[in-house]
Amino acid sequence: MQASGSDRAVEDRPVEDRPASGRAVGVREVAALAGVSRQTVSRVLNAHPQIKESTRRRVMDAIAELEYTPNFAARALGTKRSRTIGVLASDSRHYGPSTSIAALEAAARAAGHWVSTAYVDSEDLGSVSAGISHLRGQAVDGIVVVAPHVRVLEALDGLRLDVPVVTLLAGGRDGRSPAVDQIEGARIATRHLVELGHTRIAHLAGPSDWLEASSREHGFALELAAHGLEAVAVVRGDWSARSGYAAAAELSAARPTAVVAANDQMALGLMRHLREHGGAVPETLSVVGFDDIPDAEFFWPPLTTVRQDFDELARRAVAALLEGGADGASGRPMLVPELIVRASTAPR
């Protein structure tokens, strides 16, 4: 949207030169370096809709060069909004949670907000409450809970929250929050193998306390049942390639011709074990992963997998939060993941 004539005049009006060294950096200094007014700097920080993109870039570049940190706490006292979104995360080691957090930060910035993240221990329910208290103490406008663990959501159920909240990676448990349809993703992967002629199909499942792992396992079973089939084996890992490698011997004992792995890393471990023991993918075993991590296309053979759109999920989460929390996402369909077919699957 173009700025009005009066706004353009304000934006282009020169201001005072950069202050002498040693002076505290504030809005005045940012405005001087960017060549705009202090009012324009404030409008950029508040994501005003009538600021030209070129002006916004100049101001943001000046903020970065001067390492200026806006005093959102002070601004929140006057506006009742901090323009900060809280993220409560119970895991950042694995691909789904870490990618979701990075995508949330980008989506929040695009919406004119900052992100404050609190990491909690899923085994310690007290740390969940402490994390929420920490974020509320920063006057966040709302909280996105990146909660793959059952226990975290159970802890949240017992808390009274006075800010909007949405959840991610909850396996669709909160039907009002943005989500990727994990059940359908697993069904798509399983259906692909059935259509290739496989009837002896096993599942390399994720940890039982992860909501998305449970949803993927459920989707796998549903799709097999739809074709009159049953799993020849379900073996559980911990998301790591090492656990996929360790699970391979038990899976092989069931003599499957195909495996749906609950994530790409476990698929990688499974494929290595098979190769070391005289097998080959897909000649001996067809393998489908889940997530489409950046390295999946460089596995040998390149991995057939299910791709999730984490960027779109994050955009929906931020939009829902700014519209009032989970109620802001009500009625919106879940995102459907996409099957990416590569060379790790073949007809039976």
TrEMBL record:
Span of domain HTH lacI-type: 25-79
Top-level taxonomic group: Bacteria
DNA-binding found in the keyword field: yes
Start-end of Basic and acidic residues biased regions: 8-20
Coiled coil: none
Stretches the record annotates as Disordered: 1-23
Record-linked PROSITE patterns: HTH_LACI_1 (PS00356), HTH_LACI_2 (PS50932)
Family annotation (InterPro entries): HTH_LacI (IPR000843), LacI/GalR-like_sensor (IPR046335), Lambda_DNA-bd_dom_sf (IPR010982), Peripla_BP_I (IPR028082)
Annotated PANTHER family: HTH-TYPE TRANSCRIPTIONAL REGULATOR GALS, LACI-RELATED TRANSCRIPTIONAL REPRESSOR
Record's protein name: DNA-binding LacI/PurR family transcriptional regulator
Source species of the chain: Agromyces terreus
